[in-house]
Design goal:
mainly alpha, two-stranded antiparallel sheet, 4 strands, inositol oxygenase activity
């Protein structure tokens, strides 16, 4: 276990901190509200297990991190009330904020990779909330996550949608502990499926040398009910207590580095490529992150062809 992170003070934000995560009246409110209504309705234990079965085999092909970045060029997160920039630019903004604060290189790499699991959209389908286009339904790609298999907390964003979740009518899943044992530890929990869970599992499967603290940042950074509202303490282990400090330190960079100023990808890339080579085998993301990427690009070059209609 790494030592607790050195606190770096407040991140210089592009606007007042209380203006971030505005779920009341932002310019993107209608889009964001629809996203969470669908997410809350569909993200059940059964759905999580379905997606785990779909993506957990890690048996497709491979692409470099740079190729993955290119694939996210047009992806804008429909759950984010703060930014309409492509997701890859947000990831670079996060990494650069962490770098400027003097955190270690693996922490910077986490900033670069933390949202890359959204690349699942390349082979997703509408019925799974991964419509196959960068502007389609994204309710199984992004957004605040929660623990499935127990009561959804009222502190989550848009709590009025909680009752739409079928598991909240199932006595196995609608209590404080649900299907879990007290203090069983976060490693034994199931989370609403999205980019966080996928990226965490993919990196573990491929034996990255990013420390566990960094992997926790990737897996839990969207679980705002935990790190922001102090929910799920009854399920935490002692190890989770230590990891929480790291997730909180990461969160301020994820949130407050969002700005309209666009990073220079070409200028910054050589620096980050060296860190990628250090912590990821062969500098690539193997096993499942490409999934017919080349074929999709080829089909997209033909008139009337679309990513969403491609099934291979």
């Amino acid at each position: 276990m790494q030592r607790k992170p050195k606190r770096t003070g407040n991140v210089t934000a592009s606007k007042a901190e209380d203006e971030f995560r505005n779920y009341e009246d932002s310019d993107r409110h209608a889009l964001v509200s629809r996203h969470y209504a669908l997410m809350r309705k569909n993200q059940t234990v059964a759905f999580q297990e379905k997606m785990q079965a779909k993506y957990g085999s890690f048996c497709n092909t491979q692409m470099t991190i740079r190729e993955a970045f290119t694939a996210l060029m047009g992806y804008v997160d429909s759950s984010d009330p703060d930014s309409s920039l492509p997701n890859l630019e947000h990831m670079l903004q996060t990494a650069e904020g962490i770098r400027a604060a003097g955190h270690p290189d693996w922490f910077q790499l986490v900033g670069l990779l933390h949202d890359m699991g959204k690349i699942q959209y390349l082979w997703g389908y509408a019925e799974d909330g991964q419509e196959g286009t960068a502007d389609g339904d994204q309710w199984a790609l992004g957004g605040d996550t929660w623990v499935v298999g127990c009561q959804i907390p009222d502190s989550i964003v848009f709590p009025e949608f909680n009752a739409r979740n079928p598991d909240m009518n199932d006595p196995r899943y609608n209590t404080k502990y649900g299907m879990y044992e007290p203090h069983c530890g976060f490693k034994n929990l199931k989370f609403a499926w999205g980019h966080d869970e996928y990226m965490y599992q993919m990196l573990k499967f491929n034996k990255t040398t990013i420390p566990e603290e960094g992997l926790a940042m990737i897996r839990y950074h969207s679980c705002y009910p935990w790190h922001n509202k102090k929910e799920y303490t009854h399920l935490m282990s002692e190890e989770d207590e230590d990891l929480l400090d790291w997730v909180l330190e990461f969160n301020k960079f994820d949130l407050y580095t969002k700005a309209d100023m666009r990073p220079d990808v070409e200028k910054l890339w050589p620096y980050y490529q060296a860190i990628i080579d250090k912590y990821l085998p062969a500098g690539s993301i193997p096993s499942n992150l490409l999934s017919r990427y080349s074929l999709i690009l080829l089909l997209n070059s033909y008139e009337n062809a679309s990513v969403g209609s491609t099934r291979t």
